[in-house]
Design a protein that fits this description.
Shape: globular
Subcellular location: Secreted
Keywords: Glycosidase, Hydrolase, Secreted, Signal
Radius of gyration: 27 Å
Largest sheet: 43 strands, mixed
Number of helices: 10
GO molecular function, one term: glucan exo-1,3-beta-glucosidase activity
Number of domains: 3
Number of strands: 63
CATH architecture of the largest domain: 3 Solenoid
Helix content: under 10%
CATH class of the largest domain: Mainly Beta
Enzyme class: hydrolase
Main location: secreted
CATH topology of the largest domain: Pectate Lyase C-like
CATH superfamily of the largest domain: Single-stranded right-handed beta-helix, Pectin lyase-like
Structural class: mainly beta
Distance between the termini: 68 Å
Length: 945
């Protein structure tokens, strides 16, 4: 299209900046998609527009600087010009952004874009005329932007020329998160379970226990498709609540074609976008983060895609795992991604509660000469990507499976995926990940890995040129139980004069070049034990050794292994179950359970779990908030599965108020129990300030690895609708001891935990309330038989994030943590305050001076009296003191180890701490001695091992 007679380059080579919709009219799908993309850093780097004597040079300055700060190159390119171009793109009735008038003289544009000045402009105009100078300025702007490195949030204007830097969203040392939520404008303000709640009535149930076992195998298709669904958004305004459906079958409910003959994209998009039938849709930013859960179910079949899908927070796409559906891009596919995972209403670091599982994404119908990315996955914690296949043609330089290219992001885990063909499997740029059980076959480059702390666990690379390009991994790369077959090079990295770019290989099988550093082969062949490149500490030498490649022995505990590898397990789908073995907990005759965020469901949930604890049963908790006033007991033989990050157990009441006698909200087994207890897709929280609430306690031990497990199950304290913590805990942690602790793995437990985020809120997901919350403890691990923690995070808890107390036989792969933002210099509470009743496992901070605010901050890891701990990939981040800047000098101590044996830490990273590791009270490793990555990097730390 034309602006003042001059053509504006298109976004992605096709989509142009359209004029605003007429007042009162609804934007077209095209306008809406463009607005969303512009709104959060998804438009092109160099849209140039001219209106009369004004040239607008757009360099992706976002309209919401509080969510995404000005790029560092802004002093070279006028912010006003940036905003002006955004104004032309975003001024529509529903954009939520109302820029003021803008008139920028051409001379200013010339000066900003080319470094010239008004005198030069006047001379040029007198010689060549205004239009010619406008044209030259446009060319200069384009040239300037093309030769600069890709800026924050940027990529080139066409899919054909776009180049993503692996370092693009690896956050700089000065990075600080600026999270905020979006108000839940259609919430039910009268729903206050902490004040008003009813008790579910009880009558005798006539349903016999053995009825759940009537069908011993699945003969009727996938149970999740067959059963009834009655989930809800518990805190939605009653005007809309009854008209909102969580579960959507794209074929039955929206008419999607699954034969592969007709375009299905529009129908699937309609399923994703649908809100209450009498209210706003899910793209409208009116339901906050937690108010719009949606399960988009794809029955088996092939879905022809002529355009892309856009996801929003609260969306989970689920396919039939018995016959995974295929999203197949058509030969005339018009976009450059098949799925956009990032919700454009939110920045990447606050894109939570999004999932995709049990599907195949296919680009083989698109020409090998066309640039296409199958999935944008610029999301963060409490997301799930599992059992997904990426099918691409071979011999292409332009098909990419997955990218994280649209913003900063803070993810934990991607697991159980496969990539076939393509130029690159995954192009990554972000903070940290563990990649578990991922295979690449015939992919030229498996992974371009930009990040601070990256772990590969149980992966396979075959028939490719390069497995892992780690030149953008600034901190540490840890590769465990991984195989390369027929690869040119397995790992390529950069040389470094600091502790950064560390590499740890543990049980790696490969023929040929295994590691190249700076283009030179450093290691070939297999690694039978552990190979360390970077700073290494051993008990025999308290001073680090800078290793260019040394083999050390890691004596793995046999109880943690399957064969020679660490045991891992895919999230269970229970696809072998028939519908007769699945019980919807809200549909048990005579024992009503509501999950409505108002009714006390404690007694009836316990009654059902006790009555139907047969090992052949699967308890399905539809989406909703289940209010409980006392402990929910999960007996041996129980399997529980929920919906869409929205099946929430929420504690309230006086039983959870005494911090001197903490009570579990959700107790799994009794001490000494052995058997099966599995929990998937659930959320645990509190509806009030409850200093005596221990959210989850696991006592039971698995008979076989994986029998006791939690998958994709998360904690949230505050920061959301349905909890008084959201509105009550806004300033002083002394007045907000919201929960005693998140998770306790007791001495008798043996559990497998994968993809778990323990989050005490630093911001309000559903509004703009400040959040200053004190949760006493993160994860307390005392288990001795065998414990697996894979892809876990524990953030903003007061005394510690991870505490291994007399624990034995523990394997972790990626443990990410952050200190509470309110701690540090200027805080109203110094540890252990505000907590006064300390458990024997709690650090008392007596090693710190009484007024030393930076010493009295939450430990990231505390290891005491433990043995045989194998901890791979530790991320220990601190950003603030008292919610303000601390200029990179924020916290004194990160990790404390004492009275322990056989402790192995590989790939440990810190940000803004003074001391990385203490042994008791003795400082062993400082961040300054191990400078690299996001602050400090230790490739290997072997304590008494």
């Amino acid at each position: 299209m034309q602006h003042g007679g001059f053509a504006c380059p298109s976004e992605r080579g096709k989509v142009h900046i359209e004029p605003s919709s007429p007042s009162g009219s609804r934007p077209s799908e095209k306008e809406e998609r463009l607005r969303k993309r512009k709104k959060q850093n998804m438009c092109s780097d160099h849209i140039i527009c001219q209106t009369g004597n004004v040239v607008l040079c757009h360099t992706q300055y976002p309209p919401f600087p509080e969510l995404d700060p000005m790029p560092k190159y802004a002093d070279t390119m006028a912010a006003g010009i940036d905003r002006a171009c955004h104004a032309s793109a975003l001024s529509s009735p529903e954009s939520g952004y109302r820029p003021g008038p803008f008139v920028l003289p051409l001379a200013q544009v010339l000066s900003d874009c080319s470094g010239s000045n008004e005198t030069v402009y006047g001379l040029l105009v007198s010689i060549m005329g205004s239009f010619t100078v406008s044209f030259l300025v446009t060319i200069l702007c384009i040239f300037s932007l093309q030769v600069w490195a890709v800026p924050h949030g940027g990529w080139s204007n066409s899919s054909a020329s776009r180049v993503m830097s692996a370092l693009q969203y690896v956050p700089p040392i000065t990075y600080q998160p600026k999270p905020s939520g979006i108000p839940y404008t259609i919430r039910n303000q009268s729903a206050k379970p902490w004040l008003y709640r009813t008790t579910a009535p009880v009558t005798h149930s006539t349903l016999a226990q053995d009825s759940l076992c009537a069908s011993s195998s699945n003969t009727s298709g996938y149970w999740y498709e067959q059963i009834g669904h009655n989930g809800q958004s518990s805190f939605m305004d009653s005007k809309y609540k009854a008209n909102y459906t969580v579960f959507r079958n794209v074929v039955k409910d929206f008419g999607a074609d699954n034969t592969g003959k007709k375009d299905a994209a529009a129908a699937i998009s309609a399923a994703i976008k649908a809100g209450p039938t009498n209210g706003p849709d899910r793209s409208s930013s009116s339901m906050g983060t937690t108010g719009q859960p949606a399960v988009i179910y794809l029955p088996a079949g092939t879905y022809l895609m002529k355009s892309s899908l856009q996801l929003y927070v609260g969306t989970v796409i689920i396919g039939d795992p018995t016959n995974p559906p295929v999203l197949k891009a058509s030969s005339d596919f018009k976009d450059d991604h098949i799925i956009y995972g990032k919700d454009p209403n939110f920045g990447g670091t606050i894109n939570f509660y999004i999932g995709i599982k049990n599907i195949i994404i296919d680009s083989t119908g698109i020409g090998t000469d066309k640039s296409i990315t199958l999935l944008d996955w610029t999301v963060s914690q409490a997301t799930q990507l599992t059992n997904v296949g990426f099918n691409m043609p071979t011999n292409t330089a332009k098909h990419v499976g997955l990218t994280t290219q649209y913003d900063y992001n803070s993810n934990l885990i991607l697991n159980d995926l496969w990539f076939k063909g393509g130029a690159t499997g995954m192009k990554l740029s972000g903070q940290q990940w563990v990649f578990k059980n991922i295979s690449f076959s015939g992919t030229t480059t498996g992974v371009e890995a930009g990040g601070t702390d990256i772990v590969f666990l149980g992966c396979r690379f075959e028939q490719g040129t390069l497995g892992i390009d780690a030149q953008g991994t600034s901190g540490s790369l840890t590769v465990v139980d991984t195989t390369g077959v027929g690869m040119g090079t397995l790992i390529s990295s950069s040389s470094s004069s600091t502790a950064g770019n560390s590499i740890v290989l543990d049980n790696v099988q490969n023929s040929g070049a295994t590691v190249k550093i700076g283009g030179q082969t450093t290691l070939s062949g297999n690694v039978a034990n552990t190979w360390v490149h970077g700073h290494l500490y051993t008990s025999k030498n308290a001073k680090f050794q800078s290793q260019q490649g040394q083999t050390v022995t890691t004596s793995r505990s046999s109880s943690l292994l399957s064969g020679k590898n660490y045991f891992t397990m895919a999230p269970p789908t229970y696809q072998e179950y028939g519908t007769g073995q699945v019980l919807n907990i809200k549909n048990v005759p005579g024992i009503p359970v509501y999950g409505d965020g108002e009714t006390d469901d404690t007694h009836n949930i316990n009654l059902i779990l006790s009555r139907y604890k047969s090992s052949c049963s699967l308890m399905y908790f539809p989406a909703g908030t289940y209010i409980v006033t006392d402990t929910i007991f999960v007996p041996a033989g129980t399997r529980i599965i929920g919906d869409a990050f929205a099946s929430t157990i929420s504690a309230v009441g006086s039983n959870f108020e005494d911090e001197s006698a903490p009570r579990a909200m959700f107790r799994v087994g009794y001490p000494g129990d052995v058997g099966v207890a599995q929990v998937s897709d659930m959320v645990f929280t509190v509806a009030d300030v409850l200093p005596g609430c221990k959210l989850v306690e696991i006592n039971i031990a698995a008979r076989s690895p994986g029998d006791v497990g939690f998958w994709n199950t998360h904690f949230r304290i505050g920061g959301a609708a349905g909890s008084q913590v959201e509105s009550k805990c806004t300033s002083d942690p002394n007045n907000c001891k919201a929960a005693w602790g998140l998770l306790h793995l007791t001495t008798t437990s043996s559990a497998y935990i994968e993809n778990m985020w323990g989050w005490t809120a630093d911001h309000d997901l559903d509004g703009d309330n400040p959040q200053t919350i004190s949760t006493g403890r993160g994860l307390l691990v005392e288990g001795t038989a065998a414990t697996w923690l894979i892809g876990t995070g524990s953030e903003h808890n007061t005394l510690y994030q991870y505490n291994f107390q007399y624990a034995r036989n523990v394997f972790t792969a990626m443990q990410q943590s952050e200190t509470p933002y309110w701690q540090g210099a200027g805080s109203r509470a110094l540890n252990p305050a505000p907590w006064t009743y300390l458990d024997s496992s709690d650090p008392d901070y007596s090693n710190c001076a009484a007024s030393d605010s930076k010493c009295r901050m939450a430990l990231f890891e505390r290891i005491y009296g433990s043995s045989d701990l194998f901890l791979y990939g530790g991320c220990n981040w601190v950003f603030f003191n008292n919610n303000g800047d601390c200029s990179g000098d924020c916290q004194t101590n990160a990790i404390d180890i004492a009275n322990s044996t056989s402790i192995y830490l590989y790939g440990t990273n810190t940000k803004s701490t003074t001391n990385m590791v203490l042994e008791g009270t003795k400082v062993i490793a400082t961040q300054s001695d191990n400078a690299g990555g996001w602050g400090g990097v230790i490739a290997g730390y072997l304590y008494d091992s």
